[in-house]
Every structure is written in C-alpha cells, then in structure tokens.
Structures
1.
Amino acid sequence: MSKMKGFAMLGIGKTGWIEKDVPECGPLDAIVKPLAVSPCTSDVHTVWEGAIGDRKDMILGHEAVGEIVEVGNLVKTFKAGDRVIVPAITPDWGALESQAGYSMHSNGMLAGWKFSNFKDGVFAEYFHVNEADANLAVLPDSLDPASAVMLSDMVPTGFHGVELAGVEFGDKVCVVGIGPVGLMAVAAAALRGASYIYAVGTRPNCVEAAKKYGATDIISYRDGDIAEQILEKTSGRGVDRVVVAGGDCSTFEQAVKMLKPGGMIGNVNYLGSGEFVTIPRVEWGCGMGHKAIAGGLMPGGRLRMEKLASLMEAGRLDTSIMLTHRFKGFDHLEEALMLMKDKPRDLIKPVVVM
Ligand code: NDP
Ligand code: ZN
C-alpha cells in the first residue's frame, strides 16, 4: 500500500508531520487530493484546548476543495478528475437523524463531523470522503479554489447561524464575533434583508470586511458590556436576532439581555472550554420571555453546498475579502495553522493552495 504525508495532531497540544497509508475507497466513497485547504479555529480548539478529547496521530483539517482521484463502483455522479467542494460535515445520509433533518448529527450528536474528529482530515496528500454522491459538490469552473475553500465551512456555518436565528427582512441583528464565521453571518443577514446589523469585534481587517459585507454599526467588546451598547443604540429595545460566532460561555448572558421578547439567538460558536452556559433569569423573562436559544453544527450535503456556491457564481457573495494570508505549497500548512492559533491582528483567514 502506498504512503502519504499529512499534518497531524500527535496528542493534546502537539502537532507534526506524519506518514500514513493512503486511505482506501469504499464502494460509495471517493478519494480526493486537495487543491486548496484552510485551517479553522476548530482545529485550534481540537489541538490546544483538547475540546474533543485526546487524539493520537490524527491528520487535521476539514476545509478543502480538491480533485477526485478515485471513486467507488457505486458512485453515480462523480468520477476521477472532477473538481469538488468538500464540506466540513460529511453525514451518513441513511441515518435516522438525517431522515429527521439533522444530518449533522447522523449516528450521534455532532457525528456528521468526521474529518479531524473521528477520522483523518484533509491536511494530507489524499483524503477519504464517505458517500461521495451526497457529500461532495461540484466546484464551478468560474470559482477560484482559494475563495471556494471558504464554502467548506465558513460560508455554511455563518449562514446557518442566520438560519438558526431566523433572520427576516427588516430585522435588527447583532452578530457577536466577526472572524470569518461571523463575517459570513453578516453577509447572510444582509442577504436575508436585515435592516441594522451590529457587528461585534475589534481586529481592523475584520471590521473593514464586516462593513463591506453589510454591517451598519461596529461594536467593540473592549469598550464595555456589548448588551448595554446595543440597548443604547436601539433606544433600550434591543435586537430581533443575535448570531453568536465568537466569545465564550458567558456571551449568552449578553445575548439574552440584548434580545427583544420573541427574538432568537442562533449560536454557531464552538464552546471549547467551560462547564456551563449562563442565562440571566430576569432578562430571560423569568423563563417566560419568549427568547429562544438555538445552537447548531453546520449542515453539509451536495444540494446545499451547490446553492451556496451559486451565490458566489452569481456575484452575490465574495469570500476573497477574507483571505488575508495566502500560501502556496503543502509545506506551509503548519505556518497557516499557527496563524489560526496565534490570531495576529491582521488575520482573517489563511488559505494554502497546493
Ligand atoms: P475567530 O477567532 O476568527 O473570531 C472570533 C470573533 O469573536 C472575533 O471577532 C473576536 O474579536 C470575537 N470575540 C472574542 N472575544 C469576544 C468576546 N468576549 N465578546 C464578543 N466577541 C468576542 O473565529 P472564527 O470566525 O474562525 O470561528 C468562530 C467560531 O465558530 C469558533 O469557535 C469556531 O470553532 C466555530 N465554528 C463552528 C462551526 C459550526 O459548524 N458550528 C464550524 C466552524 C467554526 P476580535 O476581532 O477582537 O478578535
Ligand atoms: Zn472549520
């Protein structure tokens, strides 16, 4: 069996290059070689916070576009040589949870997230994709692979936050966190017709990008309580929707405080540490305030991914604004991941093109 190189988590807090067997292709599956990949804040939670527990010699990464090198004999719609978008979440589509509409939890909570969680990820010369017909999406020729790799995770996650918060036209929306995920939530809220979009963050490039994506106001969490700042800007009434894409377990306290009765909070932030999320009793209407809190892992699936790609094709979504650090060559993967860990002030998102 031939060997390949991959960049892996060796244990909690430890990373390095390793050699592994090239994965085998099952009858419904595909083997893909990456064209472009990007490290994610979730990789940082996994390695340095031990958020999913220990993993030994597990290849990292779950954001990629690539070229298919092999398909199983039952794969109908893809063939070797096809260029594809690889979603971070690759569910088992026959699972009961998938039939219920929650494919991201197929066969267990969060278990649709397989890359760099239950199996090797995409920071390798080759990687395996289960159920290729349902999980891969066609990469349109007009899209540049570096921009398109944002479709793996940043676009679907940010957009899902907006879906979870139920943003409707005219809504006032607060997006907490304007890293790449929050920026895509700002873009999605604007596409859904939000009126005011209050974006919370401080990194200058993120602030500039948030304005380009449609933020009407920028709020810094360093300038004091964000709920108070929002209440001040809304004559004490608050917002209709909050999308949480940054902060920590204590952020829900502020989100509940800034929300109107009947409002919804959509969380896509990965709470990598802490035991409990606190909800303020009085501002939650003593349990009767009709303030809903939903949190979710991004959905994958070919249909959804191709719809999101068509937003880019049609010129309604430009992800290139987020690509502050571009690398060429597989060997730069480690550097790109370290940027994600250290989050220099000028970073939005690094991408590595092969
Ligand atoms: P970033 O770290 O790039 O962005 C985080 C944002 O939160 C920044 O704008 C930061 O501000 C802001 N922030 C930090 N502290 C606070 C605070 N106390 N209050 C309010 N805002 C704060 O993260 P990403 O955009 O890459 O990812 C966001 C989250 O989404 C991560 O937890 C990631 O793991 C998760 N995720 C979830 C997925 C899902 O399917 N649900 C998929 C992919 C990612 P500043 O500008 O100062 O840095
Ligand atoms: Zn990710």
2.
Amino acid sequence: MDDDLFSVKGKVVIITGGGQGIGEFLALGLSKRRAIVYCIDKKFKKSKNRRGLQDMLCDITKLDEIKSVCSEIIKRNKKVDVLINNAGITMPNNSDNYSLESWSKTLDINLTGAFSFTQQVLKQMKKNHSGSIINITSLNAEFGFPNNPAYIASKGGLKMLGKSLARDCGKYGIRVNNLGPGYILTKMTEKSYRNKKKYAARKANTMLGRWGKTSDLLGPCIFLASDASSYVTGQDIYVDGGWSANGLQDE
Ligand code: NAP
C-alpha cells in the first residue's frame, strides 16, 4: 500500500472564504496534514484554533486585491498546487421580488469572483504544469430549489465553469473538479437548521438520515487535492448523504 497516495504535505493550497465555516474547516484539516494553507477572506476572527493558517485579507470581487494576494503567495512559494474556490453567499428571496442588486452581488461573488481568482492562479499552475482546482458547488447546481434564483444560477454556472476549465487546462496537467455539499451546518444554513420543519425536511431527503458536518467534506477534499485523484478531472462529486441519488423520501 502506498502511504503517500493521499498526502498533501508541502502542497501550497489557497482557499477562498477560509475565515469560517466549510472553508475554515477544510483549511485546518489540510494544514494539519502539513499543507501550506493560505486563507482568503474579507475578515478573520482572532482565534488560537487558526494557528498554522496564513490569513490574507481580500475581497474576491476586487481584481486588484486578487492580483495582490496571488502575487504575494507566488513570490513566497513559486507555485500553487491547489485552489479551492469556496467563498460564497446566499440571498434568498422569491423570484417575483428578486432584486437585480441581490442578483449581481451573488453572481459577482459566487461565479465571477471564482473565475477571476482562478485566472490569476492558472498563470502559475500552467508554468508549473500542475495543479488541482476544486470548486465548492452545491446541490443547487443540479436541482431547482425554491426562492433563491441567483444562488442556483451561480452554482449551476460554477459547475459548468469547472467543466469548461477542466477541458481547457487538461493539456497543462491541471485538473478541475466540483465538490458539491448537501446541507451542512454553518452560519449560512443555521436559520434552516434551527427551524424544526426545515431541519426535518432537509434531513428526510438524505439516505443517511442526517444533516452534513463540515468534517464530512474533508476526505473528498483531500482526495481531490492529492495525487490520489491524478486521473480525475471535470467531475462533480456530491457529498450529500445520498440526497442527489434519492428516489423517494421515507413514507
Ligand atoms: P459561510 O460560513 O457563510 O462562509 C463563507 C465565507 O465566504 C465567509 O467567511 C464569507 O465572509 C466569505 N466571503 C463572502 N464573500 C466574500 C468575498 N467577496 N471575498 C472573500 N470572501 C468572501 O458559508 P459556508 O456554509 O461555509 O459556505 C462555503 C461554501 O460552501 C459557499 O460557496 C457555499 O455556497 C457552499 N455550500 C454550503 C452549503 C452548506 O450547507 N453550508 C451547502 C452547499 C454549498 P463574510 O461572512 O464576511 O461574508
């Protein structure tokens, strides 16, 4: 057995939205396995738990800020092995009243921000002829969830951006994949988690009969970041307790 197959030791990883939630958990998990992890976010809490992470302030809707953090990371390391496009927001409201302001903001962060960041990182990955890009999509990239048109459009777009870039970058030895979480308890979902009816409905749609935890995403993320997935590109991996394969809820 090859013990190094899933190793991320020494890999330079950038994760957007790494200040909290899924991004922070993945960052800590990769850092614990001796990856060199840069977290990108608009703000960071001071916490002992974040020891080992390199925090960099950057709003991913601002190209000059993206360029500045990317050039600093590349200056320090001469490479980027893994980019995790994780930063995202949701602004639910019904389609009839959905404001263009919320639409633009959601698309700017969830889709355009991911594209802009990826473009900057790809320049270096192409020079090194290697890299793995992981887009954090969602079940919303596949299904018509109610009252959240911009989020669903952004995640569907991110999913297809992943496939488009996988096609364009394969010749440079760069892999691009999508990791789609089901319902995971974070600040983004805590309102539904605390609502008895919504909590139960989301749980009932899974095959495993439970909400997800941020820790459920770490294994699949390590797989995509490491050489264990060396022939995997252009794929969607859903970490959803079986939600997307479920034919019928419990009767
Ligand atoms: P979260 O706790 O709200 O974390 C998202 C992080 O992204 C926050 O720290 C946020 O900062 C940051 N961010 C937002 N806009 C940014 C910008 N312009 N520049 C830099 N950073 C920015 O949410 P999460 O649940 O961990 O979600 C992480 C990703 O997983 C998102 O893409 C989300 O769509 C996806 N996802 C989550 C779930 C789930 O059930 N939780 C399910 C499917 C997909 P601020 O707080 O300052 O805005």
